[in-house]
Each structure stands twice: as C-alpha cells, then as structure tokens.
Design a protein that fits this description.
heterodimer; A: alpha+beta; about 40% helix; B: mainly alpha; Arc Repressor Mutant, subunit A
Chain lengths: ~450, ~190
C-alpha cells in the first residue's frame, strides 16, 4: 500500500505543471467549428436587424459605386477633368481633327457656291448684252452656265449633308463637349447648311436622350429585401413583422407589359400561446384558534383568547405565456406587370399575381416556467400548427430610378393577401391574414 | 495582462479575441492533461479542440462561483472520457496485445523506479498503457477520484476499478523500470 502511494506521488510529482504547446491547427479548427456553431445557432432577431442594416448600406454603397462608374460612360455628364485625363481624350482629338478637315472642305464648297453666286449676275449681265448681239448662241451658253451653277450647288449641298452626317455620327460619343463645334458650323451662311445642321442637331439630341435613359431591357434581374407587417387577423395578436429576401427575373414581352418571377426566403414572426397550469399551497381563508379562555367574573360568560390561523390548501392556477416563434418560408411569386410611365430616369409600374409559400423551417421555443412553490405543473399549447403550403395574392406599385445604364433602384409598396388562414384546423383564426411591406432593391438590366 | 473575469465576459459575448486569449492561456496545461488520457498527441489535440468548443459554447453557464481552471479541467476530462467510450471498440484489439506482452512483471524490479522521471517519458509510458488502465490510473492517481466515483464514471464495478488500477500500476512500474535500466546501461555501451 505504501509502495503504491509512493508510486502515485512520484507520478504526480513528475507531471505536476506539465504543459505542451498544441499545434497551430488546433486553434484554426476551433475557430472553424465555432463559426459553424454560430451559424447553426443564429439569433434571428439580431440577425434581422443586422441584415436590414447591411442590405441598406449595401444598396447605398453599390448605388454610389455604380453611379460613379456609370458617370464615366454617360455622355451627358462628361466633365473637363474626365476629358483631359482619360484615353477618350485621344479619341476626341482625332474626332476633332476629322471634323475640322470636314469643316474646311465644307467652307471651300460654300466659297465655291458663293463664287458661283457672285459670278451669276455677271453672267446674266453678260448674257443680256450678248443676247442682243447673238441671241441664240448666248442663250445656249447661259443655259449651260445656269445648269452648271445649279448642279454645282446641288453637289455642294449633297456633300455638305453627307459630311455633316459623318460628323454627327463621329461626334455622337462626345456630344456635349463638341456641341460648340456644331454651333460653330451652324453659324455658316448657307441656309441649306443651317437646315441640315438643325436637323442633325435634333437627331443628335434625340440620340442623346435615348442613350441617357435607355430603352427598356428585355430581361432584368433584381435582388430585393422586403420588411413587412403582418396582420394575422387574430384579436389577441398584435401585428407581427416579417422579412423577405428575394431574387427576381423580369421579362418585358412588350413595351408596357412584363412578367416577373423568382424565388425568395421569408422569415415571419408569430406568437406561440401556452397555458401553464400549476398547483400551489396557498391560503384559502382563516379561522380563529382559541388559545385560552377566562370566565368573566361579572357576567359569567367565557372570554376567549384567539389568534388568526390561515388555512392552506393546494390551489389550481393557470397562467398564460407566449413565446416568439419564427417561421421560414420559401416563396415563389409570379406577377404580371404593367408600365404606367417611363419618364427619363424614373419609371413606374403596377404588378400583381399569386405567390406560393412553402413552410421550410419552424422555430418554436419551448415555454420555460419555474415556480419553486408549485406542486404540479402542466403546459397546454394553444397555438395552432401552421399549414405547410399557402397561397397569397400580391399587388404592388413600383417606382424605379435609373442610377446607371444597367442599374436601377426599386422601391415598391406591397400588399399581400393570404387566400386561406395559415393555421391548420384553426383554433386561432379562420380569417385570412394580410401584410403590408416595402420592397426595396436593385434591378439590373441585362 | 487582462483580468480573467474580463476574458470570461468577452468569451460569454462570443468575442473571438477573448476566446483566443483564453485558449492561449489554458491550452498548454490542458493539452498536458489530454496527453495522459490519449494514445498520442494528435488524439490529445482532438480532445483539446473538442473541449474548447464545449467551453466556448457553454461558458454562459459558468457562474464564476468556483475555479475557472477547475471547470475547464473538468470539461477536458469528461471529453477525454467520452472520447474513450466512443472509441472503446477500436481500443480493445490493441489493449489485448499490450497486456499479453506486458502482463508478467518481475517483482524484484519494482523498487527501482527512478524518482526523477522526465515528464515526456512518463507521458509516453502512460500513453502506451492499455486504454482502460490508463483511464483508471489517471482518474485515481492524478484526479484523485475514489473507486466508487470511477466506477460510476466509467460504468464499471468498484472491484473492476480496483483490479484495473492494480494492474495499471504494475504495468507502469515495469515499463518505467525497463526504461530506467535501459538508461543506466546505455552509457556502458557507449564506453565499450
């Protein structure tokens, strides 16, 4: 026995304070597993707040970035810094050179026309004098010269028109900066020239408007976040919140009609109702306990000395308790939409259609009730189970603001009506709930 | 130096930095404990990792009434025991071989244990003990549990616990003596 104790002491002494450094991978493994644990045990109430903040920040940041990027490609807002800094500057110089050359050609043509115009009175005077001398011969000369003048004029006008068209096509990408060039050109004397200039300027303006705000893309893709308030149509329940994240595809099959579908995850809150029954010893009344008595010498009646004693018994109680439940739905909407207007950067549409909602996860925490004095406790669940699949009708009006050539911000007040009650064999309510929400997100035109 | 209470509060709040500080503080000591319960360092590190995950996920339940190190140590030992129970099937084959090779002990050699055994050597010897012996030896000698407690913890009878401890001690002594003798003889070989 002593030997054993001695051996044990030796062993303990040898390993007292024994340490060993673990390898680096141990901590990495712990962090990895803790992350998985955190994901599995996410607190949804905090998560919603965080995700809401994150989404709004993301939308703003993405909007700013995309807007800044779109500025670089947007002809209507080319800045001097941009022109002086970027490679497009080189292109502009080239275009400018071409335009200048064309302008020189046009000027020379105009001069030709002017020369011809100035020579015309001379020819006419000459022809008048000559007509008197040799009417037939000079008549032919005059006719030939007049034809020549007319032909030359026509050729010049044609050339002018062609050159202007070329100029305008070339200058399309650099409208504003070189508007002065067009104005400069349009100040030329030729009336024909001015009319061409006006026409091409108008084309130019049309092109610019179309390029700025763009035509509607056939296909769009969007990511959205919708905070909602649900009224379960149950008197005892206050309005509850729900949050939906969805991705949508929009197909414009005509200028005014479109189809929208996609998939979303919706988290909706609800209360679980429970009745907690318990028994507890409690006072149910009292009585007077006679401790002693004396006889009144005068009256001969007994006088009792008493004390109040409570009477206890097990008493049944019932308390109501509520839990915060969370339900996750997979949502598949199909909407038919109508474009109300599309003005510059802003467009507005209405849409509506059915939404299929499939219950994919339920988080119903248990009621916790502790009462040290309770003799017996039972808990009745008064909440109705939710049906696995439900249909909703959704209607919304959406306003989009184009922040870039391919990107819009979308704000969409939305109304959802549940076709049937969401509860199974409803103890809770047979009425159809409804919800109001604000769908916000980004829409990418493909 | 951050106070332990602050580190614990940080861990309760799920702060990774606090968790890292706590890990760095206790991991070497706890790995030392885990080494005694397992066959090698890799297995010990697995137990350590699992234990720290339990610590971090259950630290909210620690009420600061007792020693925090004691609480951590208890989790380590429980995890090691669970690991042993989980791998019981795999251990049996090796245990039988070990016992067959080491069962007979020369009693004359028992008293020759060197009192200054290096921890590394002792750990190696303990690690090489059959798993069942190792558990009982650890719980009795190092954790100072009674045979009754050990019986409850390992789901065995008190007598099994006693007999296994006896055998564990004898086997351990034999191995230590062998090592001791070898280390004494080695210098002679070198001079030859």
């Amino acid at each position: 026995m002593k030997d054993d104790n001695k051996t044990d002491d030796i062993l303990r002494g040898s390993l007292e304070g024994y340490t060993k450094e673990p390898s680096v991978n141990v901590w990495k493994g712990i962090v990895r597993k803790l992350l998985l644990y955190d994901i599995r045990n996410l607190n949804f109430s905090n998560l919603f707040t965080n995700i809401t903040i994150f989404i709004f920040i993301s939308i703003i940041v993405t909007g700013v970035i995309v807007y800044s990027l779109s500025e670089l490609n947007n002809p209507s807002v080319i800045t001097d810094e941009f022109l002086s800094e970027t490679a497009i500057n080189k292109q502009i110089h080239t275009e400018y050179d071409v335009a200048s050359k064309n302008k020189e050609i046009i000027n020379s043509n105009i001069n030709k026309v002017e020369n011809i115009n100035t020579t015309t009175p001379k020819i006419q005077a000459e022809s008048t004098s000559v007509t008197n001398n040799n009417p037939k011969q000079h008549e032919n000369k005059i006719i030939n010269k007049t034809n020549y003048i007319e032909q030359t004029n026509e050729k010049t006008y044609d050339l002018n028109e062609r050159l202007f068209s070329e100029n305008i096509n070339r200058l399309n990408p650099i409208y504003l900066k070189y508007d002065f060039l067009l104005l400069n050109l349009s100040s030329e004397k030729s009336i024909k020239y001015n009319s061409i200039n006006k026409r091409t300027s108008q084309n130019h303006l049309n092109m610019r408007l179309r390029d700025d705000y763009g035509k509607k893309a056939k296909l769009s893709f969007g990511i959205f976040f919708t905070p909602e308030i649900i009224n379960y149509q149950v008197d005892s329940k206050p309005n509850k919140s729900a949050y939906t994240f969805d991705i949508s595809t929009i197909y414009h099959y005509s200028d005014i009609f479109f189809l929208q579908s996609g998939v979303g995850i919706s988290f909706s809150e609800d209360n679980g109702d429970y009745t907690i029954n318990y028994e507890q010893y409690d006072s149910i009344g009292f009585y007077y306990e006679v401790n002693s008595f004396t006889i009144d010498p005068e009256t001969g009646m007994p006088i009792f000395n008493t004390s109040i004693e409570n009477i206890y018994d097990s008493v049944k109680y019932a308390d109501n308790s509520q839990t915060n439940n969370l339900y996750t739905y997979l949502q598949i909407p199909l909407n038919l939409g109508y474009n109300i207007f599309d003005y510059k950067r802003i467009s507005c549409n209405v849409k509506g259609g059915p939404v299929l909602s499939i219950l994919i996860h339920e988080k119903e925490p248990e009621v916790k009730y502790t009462n040290k004095n309770a003799l017996w406790i039972s808990i009745d669940n008064n909440s109705s189970k939710r049906i696995k699949t439900n249909w909703q009708l959704s209607a919304s009006i959406a306003i989009s603001y184009r922040i870039g050539k391919k990107l819009s911000i979308n704000i969409e007040p939305k109304y959802n009506y549940y076709i049937k009650s969401i509860y199974e064999k409803s103890k809770t309510s047979t009425k159809s709930p409804y919800s109001l929400g604000l769908r916000t997100g980004l829409l990418f035109n493909l | 130096m951050i106070a332990e209470d602050k580190i614990i509060d940080g861990c309760k709040a799920g702060k990774r930095r606090a968790q890292n500080i706590l890990y760095k503080k206790y991991a070497p000591t706890m790995l030392g404990i885990c080494m005694r319960y397992t066959k090698n360092q890799a297995e010990a590190e697995d137990v350590l990792q699992e234990s720290f995950i339990k610590i971090f996920t259950n630290i909210k339940n620690f009420r600061k009434k007792g020693s925090f190190e004691g609480w951590i140590k208890k989790i380590m030992i429980n995890t090691a025991l669970n690991n042993y129970k989980k791998n019981l099937k795999h251990y049996h084959h090796t245990d039988i071989e070990e016992i067959e090779n080491n069962f007979f002990i020369d009693d004359n050699e028992e008293n020759n244990i060197n009192e200054e055994i290096s921890p590394e050597v002792l750990i190696k010897v303990i690690q090489n003990l059959p798993q069942g012996y190792k558990m009982i030896l650890n719980l009795f000698v190092f954790e100072r549990h009674s045979h009754k407690e050990i019986a409850q913890m390992l789901n065995i009878s008190v007598n099994t616990s006693k007999s296994q401890l006896l055998k564990a001690r004898r086997l351990l002594k034999k191995k230590l003596v062998q090592i001791n003798n070898k280390s004494i003889k080695e210098p002679e070989y070198q001079t030859l």
